[in-house]
Design brief:
alpha/beta; 4-stranded antiparallel sheet; 7-stranded mixed sheet; binds ligand C6P; 2 domains
């Protein structure tokens, strides 16, 4: 599929924003949706709206078939061993909460250790803080390298016989770095800990193989890879999911309910209580099909090339400070224009049709480590091209002139 054809499949890219063509550089917050995803959701609502796993009529069977087919698609996309290792969630945040509360909350003892980095998204930090407070476990943080990277030696330095959980991002939503998860998982397993992976920023941008990584759990969101909002999936090894307690109790997750007592279904149904986001799950399946047709290896290379180009071009703009390493970036660049608040930068860019994110990116401890309150972030995906980066560079040159004079 040629890049031009890819762009044409995203209807929102044909709109104008403030009199300019839309330059969408905020895919790390949420990615644009291709027509096939929009069509798949719409088809469910137009042609076979029904609940799943309940209704024994034609529409119910069709809906259940499409819902379970999407589970199979997630399994093959991640190279998981079996469909029942895939749990549908509201997104990465719910997946990580399910592991923290459902697994950590029932396995951690006082003095046990949970290892992570100071660069975690709040969704992979706050749930563990909560579970640590409840169980008496302790959080331990890996020391970041000077450029924000995570080295295996730094991970080894904090692992101990008390480590029970290592929970880390795969790709950073601020630094653009990719953690060596397969190596970290090997070290985690050596001390008897489980490896939890926050795949929110990796699954959309690179081939992710849970078997090759030997991840015990891996969570991601559909909306960051072109699927609908409010849905995602959690991969968990079958034996570990079997030891995980559900977060929600109610319809369809039960086996037998008596007045005073209930028993629960096996995973994954045990974790999908209540009517799920059926259209969203079907849309997630369509998004994975679309990405697979383009090819994840190709998307990986494309996004890396754009991130490298953006780094080089932004480094040439006077008055810009870039955060994170100068090489090996996955799909984004976070930076500041010296002396200008990130929100002001975002507003000036927006007036030129350029969408970026400004803020702490739900990574306040990392902002403290970087010694900033917030940053601007430009993030790229398969529909971006070098001309989008040139538009950003021109917009930033204009911003510098606007605030600091010619
Ligand atoms: N980061 C960003 O603009 P949810 O919100 O559940 O879909 O994903 C949470 C999440 C978890 N981990 C990482 C590394 C993430 O980047 C995100 C979402 C968005 O950076 C919204 S804050």
């Amino acid at each position: 599929m040629a890049t031009k054809t890819i762009r044409e499949q995203y209807p929102v890219l044909s709109r104008q924003v403030n009199g300019h063509r839309l330059v969408y550089l905020d895919s790390a917050a949420t990615a644009l949706k291709p027509q096939s995803v929009i069509d798949a959701e719409r088809a469910y609502y137009e042609h076979y709206t029904a609940n799943v796993h309940r209704s024994v009529h034609t529409l119910g069977e069709e809906a259940t078939g499409a819902y379970e087919a999407a589970r199979g698609r997630v399994r093959s996309f991640l190279n998981a061993g079996a469909d029942d290792e895939i749990v549908f969630t509201h997104g990465a945040t719910e997946g990580l909460n399910l592991v923290a509360h459902g697994y950590g909350g029932t396995h951690l003892q006082p003095g046990d250790e949970i290892v992570m980095t100071p660069a975690e998204h709040h969704s992979n930090l706050v749930p563990w803080q909560q579970v640590a407070a409840r169980t008496g476990a302790r959080l331990r943080f890996v020391e970041l390298g000077a450029d924000g990277t995570v080295s295996l030696d730094a991970v080894r330095a904090v692992l101990s016989p008390r480590t029970r959980v290592v929970s880390m991002f795969h790709s950073s939503n601020v630094l653009g770095t990719v953690n060596p998860i397969a190596d970290i998982a090997r070290e985690a397993h050596r001390v008897g800990a489980v490896m939890v992976v926050d795949g929110a920023q990796s699954v959309p941008h690179m081939p992710v193989d849970v078997a090759a990584l030997d991840a015990d759990f891996l969570a991601f969101s559909a909306h960051k890879l072109g699927g609908p909002t409010g849905v995602g999936a959690l991969y968990g090894k079958r034996a570990l999911l079997a030891e995980t307690a559900p977060l929600y109790f109610g319809g369809e997750m039960i086996e037998q309910v008596e007045r005073e007592h209930s028993t629960f279904k096996a995973p994954p149904e045990r974790f999908e209580g209540g009517t799920p986001h059926i259209a969203g799950v079907i849309g997630l399946g369509a998004a994975l099909t679309f990405l697979s047709e383009v090819g994840m290896e190709r998307i990986y290379q494309h996004d890396r090339e754009l991130a490298a180009l953006a780094y080089d071009r932004l480094a040439q703009v006077d008055g810009i400070e870039i955060y994170g390493p100068d090489h090996d970036r996955q799909s984004l660049v976070a930076f500041n224009v010296k002396g200008v608040h990130p929100h002001d930068v975002a507003q000036v860019l927006d007036a030129r049709g350029i969408a970026v994110r400004a803020g702490h990116h739900c990574c306040q401890p990392l902002m403290s480590w970087l010694d900033v309150g917030s940053t601007v972030r430009a993030s790229f995906y398969l529909y971006n091209e070098p001309d989008d980066i040139e538009a950003l560079v021109e917009g930033l040159q204009h911003t510098v002139r606007f605030f600091h004079g010619a």
